[in-house]
## 1
Amino acid sequence: MGYMLEIQDVHKTFNAGTINEKVALNGVNLNLNPGDFVTIIGGNGAGKSTTLNAIAGVWSIDAGKIVIDGVDITKLSEHKRAAFLGRVFQDPMTGTAATMSIEENMAIAARRGQRRGLGWGITKKEKESLKTLDLGLEDRLSSKVGLLSGGQRQAITLLMASLKKPKLLLLDEHTAALDPKTAAKVLELTVKIVEEEKLTAMMVTHNMKDALRIGNRLIMLHNGNIILDLSKEEKQNMEVSDLLKMFERASGEEMDNDRMLLG
């Protein structure tokens, strides 16, 4: 079985040749097996979101190659890459259309990439999937999404992103804007969906406790490079303090704790 994701020597520099030049990705190499659930940590500017944006095609990379399930997507547009990907952003307001109902939002997600037909609405199976959120939303299908709480919207966004069983689910600090109790609930749902649907997922987080606890792999970025890549076995008995020490050894620097929430 081949890799689900291959990132080969990817480089990205913003504002090249100017006083504001920033090397965001400096030869990143990463292979994910089908079903890998990878947590991604690193300080501000380390390259976490930039890596996800490179995969999603938000902008073109300067050099390198990105392959999803054997398909070279390096030169595909962001729109065409969407067929391979599901994504949840930090802001709960960005993943859903506020003026549309829950049912309409779900229907759009469920039929992404298909021609619009007369069969508007969601199936019984898709309605049942709302029940898994345990938020009572299956009884509020006609409610406008804009009337829901941030946690409810993010839960729906997560469900929408995974409905079509994407090749790769990208989670960009998707619980950071929620209150602690709601964040824990959405994170619990995330683990449940990824495991039950056997998805391959990458989750950027600033919470090192969550990074150690969740998924089967942890990578740390620093200055646009992957400096740590830990398996489930390597990280399962680690504490945050151990991770900080490993960062210092790998980077030659001390972690700026103001830039990395310890959770």
## 2
Amino acid sequence: IEGVKHWHIPATMVINSHLDPAKQSELYFQNVVYLLRLYIKDTSKLIFHFNYNKSTRLAKELKMAFDCKIVSVIHYNDWGLYLHGNLNYLHEIIRKPKEKRTTFEQIVFAGFLDEQVLMNTVDRIICLSEYMYTIVKEDYHIDPDKISIVHNGLKKVNVKSRKTLLRSKWQFSANEKLILFAGRIDGIKGLCFLGRAFREVLKQEPGCRLVIAGSGDYDVCMKETKDICAKITYTGFLEQSELHELYCLADIGVVPSLHEPFGYVAVEMMMHQLPVIATATSGLNELIEHGVHGLKVPVIESADSLEIDYNILAQRILQLIRNPLEARRIGKNGKKKYEQSY
């Protein structure tokens, strides 16, 4: 495809096999490497590039089969998904004696150790943010000389239609204030807190609509907001071109994630000059200077959970709704930040 060879090696794991999963994984990756040896003719200066954390066995097999280098990009961590990015809870699990860890904590710790082995096996680790760099260095104890920081970049997308025409196309009223969330509908994305905040916003500004663009667990989100459901639009999964139209027709973008190694959606919103309200968490915190490129909402971290003060989130939304000049200024600054850095 356009001068690049693509080899697709299907997953052939047998769930009901008599072999345990670890042995299945070992045999599978041995065969993957066997196939690669058939196809890769020039074995000089080989570099393998991983975008998936659960590749430890593959990394070891490649090292045995080839004189190669391996680069691994850390897009996420298992513990971040399990714990919603609660780093203090991870530290507590690591410190606990094995016999005192719950079954859940044992799963989290095992995943952490496997990622640590992968990081020690590969030759170069790429982190998407300073936040992830610090964790890889200090928690996984990886030599900092082995780590690079490379932010995600986005190709510029221009939407030619005007805002009024786009609103007409999507059947949104020209006078509604549209608040946009884009992403996976999942607990880690903070949608339950956004729903509560939006309820408070409607009490003072009833001419608003929340647009949720993405797929996932709708039931939990709908249960949280059933009393205001007439003011919420779910689009389901969208193609990229459709999503970019929503960025252009919305008034405010909200990224209420509890944990984001980078914050791709926030940068997409900034690219389209959409004023952004985001949580001051993990890699997302590095994208925005409060009051300049967007507005921030703190994340409250307790021993085993993370929360957002939805009243503060509501205040931030109302601030931009009631101050269109400020919203426009923040949107323009966000676009400049995108052009300079991403």
## 3
Amino acid sequence: IKECKALVEYYMENARIIAAALKNSEIEFVGGENSPYLWLKCPKNMGSWEFFDYLLESAQLVGTPGAGFGASGEGYVRLTAFGSPEDTEEAIRRMRQLR
């Protein structure tokens, strides 16, 4: 149980770091507080696949298009906080460069 708790804390710290960076951006999001998933609202009326493509092409970031979760997921892209701290910081650096 100790190891599981440490792993959850590790993921949640990554989620906290991502959420803090997103709070200072124009990207609306929910999540990252009680789970290591963050749901980014697609900007400019983009669909979830369109926003997925934008993140991939513009910042080499990979998430999961919300459309894959059904009609309620459309309009969002899900990010996870399961990477290493170094990868998380790199993802944040790339997000900050988005326009």
